[in-house]
């Protein structure tokens, strides 16, 4: 399966950056990698219309209900009209700053499923939860919104909160252990293995991408800061297209 590289611009970027990413990521990289750029909502139209933008269109959030009196919200139906194929939900920054609960994120999941947009469910533990070995319980709780659902293709992004924007990344063993736990949880809930892709996110960049992607359980990367640099992002996508994987684990 192709590695999946998703850029999360967060509240950054510009129309000019769209042009620069388009120029840096043209054609040749995409034979073996799938790339998605999640821009702030105002850029989705330009991204969809862009003549030479090869990565797919992604969004960073959607509303947990279909429509109505929710000033400032953007529905999954609207995202679908703009050609969005992936949408992040449950990013730790939104869980913290917008006080998003698992129940709200479950609503967003349902909305995306209803409009055939692939959800990218972001989960991860804090430093304290890692230190106190409660990360399994935390991830399990965040994944519980997938239970009792009609399974559809899903991406889970494992982003330890302590690794986001800090330059710190977990050890290969810790990533392996967390991803194995996630895979077991989700397949136990009835999702066929072929519906599930698990990404790593948190301080991924052009320097460490090849190493992270060489871990057999890592299906791709969710990239924040480094995705704002066109040449770094292009290099990460190019690394992901390298089919000669050194697998560190069988
Ligand atoms: O939060 C992230 C992507 O969603 C990761 O951000 P950084 O790559 O900047 O650490």
Structural account:
Mean pLDDT is 93; it is low at 243-250. α1 runs parallel beside α10 (230-240) and α7 runs parallel beside α8 (172-188). An eight-stranded parallel beta barrel has the order 1-2-3-4-5-6-7-8, surrounded by four helices. It is globular and about 45 Å long. It has 250 residues and is α/β, with parallel strands linked by helices. Helix content is 35%, strand content 16%. The protein has helices spanning 15-24, 44-49, 76-81, 92-97, 102-114, 127-131, 135-143, 172-188, 209-213, 230-240, and strands at residues 3-8, 33-38, 56-59, 86-89, 118-123, 154-158, 196-201, 220-223. α1 links the parallel β1 (3-8) and β2. The protein has ten helices and eight strands. The chain has one domain: TIM Barrel. 1,3-dihydroxyacetonephosphate (13P) is lined by residues 8, 91, 159, 164-165, 201-204, 222-226.
Tell me which oligomeric state these chains represent: single chain
Instruction: Identify the CATH architecture.
Output: Alpha-Beta Barrel
Q: In which range does the helix fraction lie?
A: 25-40%
The tally of structural domains comes to 1
Q: Total helix count? A: 10
Give the structure's gist in a few sentences.
With 250 residues, the chain is of the alpha/beta class.
Descriptors for this entry?
TIM Barrel; about 250 residues; alpha/beta; binds 1,3-dihydroxyacetonephosphate
């Amino acid at each position: 399966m192709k590695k999946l590289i998703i850029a999360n611009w967060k509240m950054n970027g510009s129309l000019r950056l769209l042009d620069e990413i388009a120029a840096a990521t043209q054609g040749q990289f995409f034979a073996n990698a799938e790339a998605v750029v999640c821009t702030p909502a105002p850029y989705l139209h330009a991204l969809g219309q862009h003549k030479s933008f090869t990565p797919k269109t992604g969004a960073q959030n959607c509303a947990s209900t279909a429509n109505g009196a929710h000033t400032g919200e953007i529905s999954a139906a609207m995202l679908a009209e703009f050609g969005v194929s992936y949408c992040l939900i449950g990013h730790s920054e939104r869980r913290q700053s917008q006080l998003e609960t698992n129940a709200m994120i479950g609503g967003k999941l349902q909305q995306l499923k209803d409009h055939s947009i692939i959800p990218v469910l972001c989960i991860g533990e804090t430093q304290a939860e890692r230190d106190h070995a409660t990360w399994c319980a935390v991830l399990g709780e965040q994944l519980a919104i997938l239970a009792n659902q009609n399974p559809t293709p899903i991406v889970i992004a494992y982003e330890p909160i302590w690794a986001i924007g800090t330059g710190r990344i977990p050890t290969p063993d810790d990533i392996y252990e967390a991803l194995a736990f996630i895979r077991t949880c989700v397949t136990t809930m009835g999702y066929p293995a072929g519906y599930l892709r698990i990404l790593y996110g948190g301080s991924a960049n052009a320097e460490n991408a090849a190493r992270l992607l060489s871990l057999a359980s890592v299906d791709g990367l969710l990239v924040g800061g480094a995705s704002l640099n066109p040449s770094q992002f292009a290099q990460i996508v190019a690394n992901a297209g390298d089919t000669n994987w050194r697998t560190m684990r069988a």
